[in-house]
Amino acid sequence: ITGGVNWLTDPKRQEQRHDIVEHSRALHNATTLCRSLLTKEQQTETAYFDAVRVMLVRLAQKGPISRHEINERISNLLNQSLHSKGVINLFDGHKLEFSLFDEAFLKELQKMKAKNLAVELLTKLLKEQLRKQGAHNVVQSDKFSNMLSMTLSNYLKGLLDNQTVIEELIKMAELMKQSEQEGNDLGLTPDEKAFYDALSKPEGVRAAYKDEDFIAMTKELTDMLNRNRTIDWNHKESARARMKVLVKRLLKKYKYPPENCEEALDIVMRQCDNWADNADNFTESSYPDINSTQYSAPSIPLYKEQEEDSPIFMAADSSGEE
Question: Long-range contact list for 89-93, CB < 8 A, 24+ apart?
Answer without folding.
Answer: 90/1, 90/2, 90/55, 91/2, 91/67
